[in-house]
Amino acid sequence: MHRFSISAALALAATSPALAGPVDVPPPLPPVIVDNCPLTFDCLYAGLELGYGQGDGDESVIGGPTIPLDFDGEVYGAFAGFNFQNGSTVFGGEVRYLHTNLTDGVAGFEVNSLLDLRARVGFAMGQDFMVYGAAGWTMAQATAAADFDMDGYNYGIGVEYNLSESFFLGADVTGRQLEGSQGGFDYETTVNTATIRAGFRF
What we know:
Elements lengths: L1 H14 L28 E17 L6 E20 L2 E16 L4 E17 L3 E16 L1 E17 L4 E16 L2 E17 L1
Antiparallel strand pairs: 1-2, 1-8, 2-3, 3-4, 4-5, 5-6, 6-7, 7-8
């Protein structure tokens, strides 16, 4: 009787799925990683910049002499924009505000601020480096005896380098051809800036 019970128990254990041997359990699925900027430059971005500005031009009045202008000084400000990326081509728009202290001490002329609205087209070299060209419109505030507005077109080139997925450094050189009038005088100027930039991609 005991011999039959033991034999039956062993037979049952051998045929039981739970006790027949180790069960293969599939490995867990890897975590899903969401890339905030899958194409590296295809993102909203914003940052700060600091640099140097220089310009020249003319102050003129009908029937009077033309006074040459020559001014320079520091510039600093902020920028924001959005890039769209298609393969290695990057294009988008940007708005930039620069506070300036570009002064001609002889003529008493000063450029106080610059607001650039521009389109950019760039070429991405790998995942980290981009070179771009830009063009657009600029509105400026200047002073010559009194404050007045100037405007005109801008053009420039620049580079950006990604230090991480979200942080980048860059350099930008922009030229502007601006015109304005104040108190019967007409002003035509070229305003150039060279800046170092630091920003984040979102």
